[in-house]
Amino acid sequence: MSKDNFQSLDALTDDALLILFSNGSQSAAQELTRRLMPRVFAQAYHKLRNRSDAEDVTQEAFMKLWRIAKEWKQDQAKVSTWLYRVVENACIDRMRRNRSSSAIEDMVIEPADPRPSAGQALQNQSRVNALYDAIDALPDRQATALRMRHLEEKSNIEIAQIMDLSVDAVESLVSRAKRTLTAQLQGQKTALGYQDDSVQ
Amino acid sequence: MTQSNKNDDFDLDALFQEARIGVPTPNPALFDQIIADAQSVLDEPLSETSKPVSSPPWWRQLWIDIGGWPTVTGLATAGIFGVWIGMSSDLLSTQTIAPDTNTVELSDPFSGLDLAMLEG
User: Fold this and answer.
1) N or C, which terminus of chain B has less Cβ within 10 Å?
2) How many beta carbons lie within 10 A of that of residue A184, not counting itself?
3) pLDDT for B88 beyond 70
4) Residue B27 domain flag
5) Residue B95 has pLDDT above 60, yes or no
6) pLDDT value, residue A198
7) Which residue of B25, B34, B47 is the best one to mutate when testing the A interface, meaning the one whose CB has the most A CBs within 10 A?
8) Fold (CATH) for A111-195
């Protein structure tokens, strides 16, 4: 792909790229993948806590996107919103099929961001695991809103569009979720080693 | 970006940040696999939904053209009614001249239609 072509594709919306792809442009597919894959993968990873499963879900989601491209209408949902829902459902399906301890083991085995010491890395990982566990224990809508807001860093407006809620309702969901999380994790502070470092 | 919970005993935002940093990088091969999938979809022949809809068989088309069940029902009713008129025509002779009298009886050959006319 030439640099000029890449730059011109970069300026297009996701919708336009998808339509371009349906007309046979592989460059459009590359640009869409480059643009959306990190977000899709992160979403799947936060939900599944397993790199391999997250990669599978990401690939499945994109396959569905390519297949729907020919029928895509620009006035329907945004591509990113559509993809978010597809990934969410795919993750739920996978969790039902594959609910086991392997995900947590996998996460401990391959820390993504190695810290200076193995002990520190394990402690950080334990904290993150505790956070994920606490999020999983939240009511579904609170957990979904909180993941989008604080793990995927989406705006409240984006979340409202994806969840078909008002912005106020999203803020309320996130706020309640954070209160519950704080209360839950507060009790585990010592176990998670917060006395030992500067996170507190 | 998220606001720090200064008043919370437990710093959730720091923990969220740890979780965000902890997301691994996907395998570089994933990008290539996704692009290969895209190419395979582009290479596929027309899907079932994209194929032109085939026309119905001739008898079905004829059935549609003549109007379907409502038309056939109407035709059947008219046919039965015609047979009934034919059968009753002997009783409704237009003119009967009795051989042994000089009187002439006139009768309405379509008297049987009176009821039909009322039915609209």
Assistant:
1) C
2) 17
3) yes
4) yes
5) no
6) 44
7) B34
8) Arc Repressor Mutant, subunit A (1.10.10)
Whether B50 and A110 lie within 8 Å, measured CB to CB: no
From the list A122, A192, A188, the residue with the least C-alpha distance to B22 is A122
Residues in chain A: 200
Taking the C-alpha atoms of residue B26 and residue B102, their distance in angstroms, rounded to an integer, is: 116
Give the class (CATH, top level) of A1-99. mainly alpha
Q: What is the pTM of this model?
A: 0.64
d(C-alpha A66, C-alpha B38), whole Å: 6
Which segments of chain A have a pLDDT < 70?
1-7, 99-119, 190-191, 193-200
Domain range for B31? 12-44
> B54-69 pLDDT, tens per residue?
667 778 888 888 888 8
Best B6, B10, B48, B51 residue to mutate vs chain A (most A CBs within 10 Å): B10
Decide if A186 and B39 are in contact by the 8 Å CB cutoff.
no
**Position B89 pLDDT exceeds 60:** yes
Domain total of chain B? 1
pLDDT tens sequence across B1-42: 444 444 445 688 888 998 998 899 999 999 999 999 999 999
Task: Reduce the DSSP state of residue B58 to 3 states and report it.
Answer: helix
What's chain A look like in SS3?
A: CCHHHHHHHHCCCHHHHHHHHHCCCHHHHHHHHHHHHHHHHHHHHHHHCCHHHHHHHHHHHHHHHHHHHHHCCCCCCCHHHHHHHHHHHHHHHHHHHCCCCHHHHHHHHCCCCCCCCHHHHHHHHHHHHHHHHHHHCCCHHHHHHHHHHHHCCCCHHHHHHHHCCCHHHHHHHHHHHHHHHHHHHHCCCCCCCCCCCCCC
Residue B51 has pLDDT above 90, yes or no: no
Per-residue tokens: A21: 């792809």
